[in-house]
Structure formats: structure tokens, C-alpha cells
């Protein structure tokens, strides 16, 4: 079997083990057994448990970003772009629950260097969503009234909501990716659309 194929088998086993057992409880013996290889071969290919976990984070991050970006078709209306991206996000996290658990639960709770790896993923997704919201503002009116900082803040909020909702959807029976994406669109788009047309909410003076 080619090395690249064997390595992916090991990482598949590692992602499943890390997701289900947790990073600290997972052992290289378990990963090797699940992959159908010897433990020395796992070490030979992937060096250490820390490096193996880092490789898993990077692989799952890349797959998630590619799934979201490839789903968004340039040139279509802004709401359809956002809808396509959200539906792809929830579809991917639903179809890859172990990968999402590694990214959303395990990596973010075990310190460096794992937190930085997940931070890089989040930064890339936020940048992509920032672009979508900025494009939507330009579509709404030629001279967009939304300041760059507001657009960046909205992107952070939307990504955070998507992460939380994916975590909930993956453990709640019967919630489809389409339903989760619809929920977030209903929650976010009406507000975004109002903002883009200058109808922002302001607190009353006390």
C-alpha cells in the first residue's frame, strides 16, 4: 500500500480515537490497532502523539475550509452565497462529526500548539465570511454604510453562532444540515439586511 494511503488510514483512525476518547486518554496503541498497523509504524510515519494530533487538526481544518469555499458560487445574490456557505458548513460538520469534535472540542481545550492551529482555521473562515458580508453591503448600495469594523464584528458573531449551532445539531437527533443552516439564516439575514439598508438598531437613551 502506498505510504500516502497508509498515512491517511492512520489519521482516519486517529481522528476517530481523539474524538471519542479525548486527546489525553487516546493512546497510540488504540490508534494503531484501529488502523490495522503496528504502533512503531505509526511513530515512523507521524513521529509522536502531539504531531499526529496536529496533523489531524490541519487535515480536518483544510477539508472544512475547502467544503465551505467551494460551495459558494461567485456572482450570485449575497443571501444565496451566505446560504450556500452555511449549508456546506453544516453538511460537512454533520457528515464528519469526529473531525468536528477534534476541531471544536478537543483541539481548543488542550492548549498550545493546538489552540493556535484551530485559531488559524477560524481566522480563515472569518476572513471568508467577512468578504461575503462586505459583498452583500456593496450589493445593497454602491456606497456601503457599514464600516469595516462592523463587518468584521458581524463575521465574528456569525462564525461563532455557526460553531455553537453545529455543536448542538450534531448531538440533537433529527436536526438536518439544511435545518441548521435555515435556522442561522433566519437568525442572521434579517438583521444583516436591515443593517445594509441603513436600518440598524440603536439603544434608547436611559
TrEMBL record:
Annotated signal sequence range:
none
The record's section on InterPro entries has: DesT_TetR_C, Homeodomain-like_sf, HTH-type_TetR-like_transc_reg, HTH_TetR, Tet_transcr_reg_TetR-rel_C_sf
Q: Which Gene3D superfamilies match?
A: Tetracycline Repressor, domain 2
> Which residue numbers delimit the DNA-binding region?
27-46
Q: A Pfam family for this UniProt protein?
A: TetR_N
Q: Does the keyword Iron-sulfur apply?
A: no
Q: Which domain of life is it from?
A: Bacteria
Q: What are the record keywords, sorted? A: DNA-binding, Transcription, Transcription regulation
Q: Which residues form the HTH tetR-type domain?
A: 4-64
The molecule here is called: TetR/AcrR family transcriptional regulator
- Statement: the UniProt record of this protein carries the keyword DNA-binding: yes
Amino acid at each position: 500500500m502506498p505510504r500516502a494511503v497508509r498515512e491517511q488510514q492512520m489519521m482516519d483512525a486517529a481522528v476517530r480515537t481523539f474524538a471519542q476518547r479525548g486527546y489525553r486518554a487516546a493512546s497510540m496503541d488504540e490508534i494503531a490497532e484501529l488502523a490495522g498497523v503496528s504502533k512503531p509504524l505509526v511513530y515512523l510515519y507521524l513521529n509522536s502523539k502531539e504531531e499526529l494530533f496536529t496533523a489531524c487538526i490541519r487535515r480536518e481544518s483544510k477539508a472544512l475550509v475547502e467544503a465551505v469555499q467551494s460551495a459558494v458560487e461567485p456572482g450570485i445574490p449575497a443571501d444565496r452565497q451566505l446560504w450556500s456557505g452555511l449549508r456546506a458548513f453544516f453538511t460537512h460538520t454533520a457528515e464528519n462529526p469526529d473531525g468536528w469534535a477534534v476541531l471544536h472540542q478537543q483541539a481548543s481545550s488542550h492548549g498550545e500548539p493546538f489552540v493556535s492551529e484551530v485559531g488559524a482555521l477560524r481566522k480563515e473562515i472569518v476572513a471568508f465570511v467577512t468578504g461575503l458580508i462586505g459583498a452583500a453591503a456593496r450589493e445593497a448600495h454602491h456606497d456601503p454604510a457599514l464600516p469595516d469594523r462592523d463587518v468584521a464584528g458581524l463575521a465574528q458573531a456569525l462564525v461563532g453562532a455557526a460553531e455553537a449551532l453545529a455543536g448542538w445539531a450534531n448531538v440533537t437527533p433529527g436536526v438536518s444540515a439544511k435545518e441548521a443552516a435555515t435556522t442561522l439564516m433566519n437568525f442572521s439575514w434579517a438583521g444583516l439586511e436591515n443593517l445594509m439598508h441603513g436600518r440598524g438598531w440603536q439603544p434608547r437613551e436611559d
